[in-house]
Amino acid sequence: MTQHQLAAHPQHPVLCVRGACKRFGSVVALDDVSIDVHRGEILALLGDNGAGKSTLIKCISGVHRLDAGDVVIDGAANVLRSPADARSAGIETVYQDLALFDNLTPAQNFFAGREIAGPKWLPRAMRLLNKRRMDEQTRSLIQSLNVSLPHLDAVVALMSGGQRQAIAVARSAVFARKVVILDEPTAALGLCESRKVLDLIGALRDRGNAIILITHNMDHVTELAGRAVVLRQGRRVGELVPTRANKQELVSMIVGA
Amino acid sequence: MRGTDDSLEREVAEPRAPTVAASENVAVAVGLKLLGAGAVLILIGLILVLSLLSPYFLSPRNLGNILAQTAVICVVAMGQHLVILTKGIDLSVGSNLALASVLGALSFHAGASALTVVAVMVAAGTTVGAVNGLFYVYGRLPHPFIITLATLSIAKGIALQLADGRAIPGMPPAIRSLGQEAFAGLPGSVFVVAGVAALMFVLTQSTVWGRWMYAVGGRADAAVRMGIPVSAVLVSAYVISGTCAGIGAVLLAGRTDAGSPLFGNLLELDTIAAVIIGGASFLGGRGHIGHALIGAIMIGVIRNALNLLNVGVFYQLIVIGVVIVAAVEADVLRNHLESRMRVLRAEAGP
Lengths: 257, 350
What we know:
heterodimer; A: alpha/beta; Rossmann fold; six-stranded mixed β-sheet; four-stranded antiparallel β-sheet; disordered N terminus; B: mainly alpha; ABC transporter involved in vitamin B12 uptake, BtuC; two-stranded antiparallel ribbon; two-stranded antiparallel sheet; about 0% strand; globular; ABC_transp_permease (chain B); transmembrane transporter activity (chain B)
């Protein structure tokens, strides 16, 4: 799998993290961690609770800043000061808490913070919303990703857990140009709903995005991920091409046994 | 584990007569629709009953009276609505209005023109609003209750000090006629209310800023992660609430031909009540300008009716308090029905 993908994407990785270090007071959350991801690849980020996975992705998505180390996007080192910086650099994040607005519709959620509006000579905040175009794009995206949302004009508060998860993942698809990070996307879902979200993640990869997937579900890892990187206590302890055969090896790497 | 549980539940749920779920679904949907339109229905019912009880109620003169008396609450409630939309509260609007009217009266006596007096009042209101917003957001205060309670006291104190504790009579003729005279059969203040409402409607429903208001009110931490300038949006809500208090000062000063530190007493309660009675959610993120207007008019109608029916003025406070509780309970019920709806839809499957 990896060989195949490396052959398909011989160019340099779209996202590199080099020597990432992050401390919170006396706690070392990340200690010299490096990862890289290519376009069209799903990288699983594994580790026990407190291993540093969430800290690492928060640094990539602009929520935290690294104490030392670089985030290199398409070969250029970027300083990500805010989530908005990361988004404009082409990195989309699906947060574990989804970061959805319950009082808004799916279309309004998709375009929150990135509304299509004009005319251009007005200051951004005062521009008039182009609601029709945003609705159209939402509808065609939902169709192309094969998500079923029967009540597109209802607010998100009225939707089921799986639908909400699908909306959060689909939102990242609207704007993802390079990297999509997914933090435990199936943790709160039933079997059928998980299946749909996994298919959606596959669709995101097939659109040429690099995917970083955090999950505790080893079946999902072996099914989807081309590579798996394991963190333990803030350090990178190994990398594997996950298969059904080496699942046990992965688990022992995670727990350090 | 959870997955198996869910699918088991679904298997159990499906054989249960689907018509039961469907009819409950319809009932919940109808309930939600009714609650959404509740304030308008109650207002219409109230007007019908009152027109039967008092022949005077529907006379043009009385309706004009209601509108003129409600205009101040209407304008200030529209500003309050923005603040409540962001999960906040502005307690300072009444004192802010009083201070603005006093500054306006003083500037008039110092020889300022009508236009300047209006500008002074609106600018004074806006300034107090800006103080509220800036201290709340950048002073990292835990809740806007605190800073607006402080400016309630401070603005009142400054107004009393400047006016020596008394009303200052005298307003330019233009402001007076705006507050007292009728144009095309309607009180002048009605046109101000309509103008502010139209502007606020476009701002909140059609601009990017308006969408940000709803997003910030819905979930501020998510708004930060989506790159929305949350701090600026929050400050703007308080600034506009202050501007509305300043416009309210112009209307009230015109109607009474004076500026007074005693204006706007309990106006914060009236405006908060108007927004909540009208049907906006106190939990933030839900509601529109119409809610503020309907709630304000409802308060005006209740007061007017109790006057017409010779019910003592003290009862008005009791009635309005009861209506507030009813409105908030309706909001709670709406949230409950929505979560019921969510469960029903999840059971029905996508």
